[in-house]
What we know:
Layout: H1 2-12, H2 14-19, E1 22-34, E2 40-51, E3 56-65, H3 77-80, H4 83-91, E4 95-100, E5 105-108, H5 110-116, H6 120-123, H7 134-141, H8 144-152, E6 154-163, E7 169-180, E8 186-195, H9 197-246, H10 254-286, E9 294-296, H11 298-309, H12 311-315, E10 318-324, E11 331-333, H13 335-351, E12 357-367, E13 373-382, H14 412-422, E14 426-431, E15 437-444
Parallel strand pairs: 10-12
Antiparallel strand pairs: 1-2, 2-3, 4-5, 4-8, 6-7, 7-8, 9-11, 12-13, 13-15, 14-15
Helix pairs in contact: 9-10, 9-13, 11-13, 13-14
Amino acid sequence: xxxxxxxxxxxxxxxxxxxxxxxxxxxxxxxxxxxxxxxxxxxxxxxxxxxxxxxxxxxxxxxxxxxxxxxxxxxxxxxxxxxxxxxxxxxxxxxxxxxxxxxxxxxxxxxxxxxxxxxxxxxxxxxxxxxxxxxxxxxxxxxxxxxxxxxxxxxxxxxxxxxxxxxxxxxxxxxxxxxxxxxxxxxxxxxxxxxxxxxxxxxxxxxxxxxxxxxxxxxxxxxxxxxxxxxxxxxxxxxxxxxxxxxxxxxxxxxxxxxxxxxxxxxxxxxxxxxxxxxxxxxxxxxxxxxxxxxxxxxxxxxxxxxxxxxxxxxxxxxxxxxxxxxxxxxxxxxxxxxxxxxxxxxxxxxxxxxxxxxxxxxxxxxxxxxxxxxxxxxxxxxxxxxxxxxxxxxxxxxxxxxxxxxxxxxxxxxxxxxxxxxxxxxxxxxxxxxxxxxxxxxxxxxxx
Length: 449
């Protein structure tokens, strides 16, 4: 081809020219060349303006024969029309979803088929948002993700979920970016959708291990807490049986009947107390719907965590101080996971105060510049032993613990950190040896669409 030959002729003198000249401009462009046989080819070339003392030269070097790669314009078929591009997309182990400028799906790969449960034909023409659960849409449409996509052309990976054809909620991680036509206009978007079901199952197993460890640490307090009402139930029951036998022939006076009724009411009250304790433990240990995200109130989460820890606080002579704002905004979260976070933090606080102390729990809103709530904060503070400064950077590492052997697994804070990050939140710690520890947690406010 004649044009290629001319480029090759330039190449022989390139080094000499470069040593005595200066490049004013160098651009990477897509251009169309015509071969000797009349056929056109699409190439990517580097075009430079080179100046010498005597004249200017325009030099182009072909970097890539781009005939098999299409720059997507207004015609969606240009995406699907390239066998080379199709092979790349199909080879991805993650789901690939390509949309046009209006958001309609124009191409997907087989990995996306497996995630969504629909055939490629069924997915074409649909919008990605059609498969997003209502409670998830805010985090895609109503947060800074859209702003970041418009500004930067891409967003950092974020976790969400899709509803597949079987109505199963599938946890996924999205990476999204725009692509542009030759005029610089948005031609569509490319989304990489990673199936997180296997990873979430592994995380769930770690959560279960952490729960078992927490239950082991709570065992002494649980035994004491249940033993008290059971002792009352047994005592009152034995008293009634004895008196009933004594009065079986004589009959009961009205006062004696009232006395028995009073004892029976106490038995009922103590039985309900034991039932409540068991229900809290079952709720904590089961942890169903680990993927479900709803609008939740941190005040209720913290109160539930206190119920789980229960008598461990009383056994350690710990005073509870609560400053839970009644106007705290809801956050988007999973109740089970968040309760586990605060249960872990409260257990740690109790263990740091074996001789008693004060446990402080606080919540409230953090407003933005316009005065509207943007984040919800929570504080868990103790007046216990504190943490050495050198350990503060490691306390969220898996299996790292400052407790005596057998007193902890080193998973509690690591698991809690992972849960908080999944909720788009942050956790900070402030501590000094002998001066107690304060944990600060921040979560984005949940806003209805």
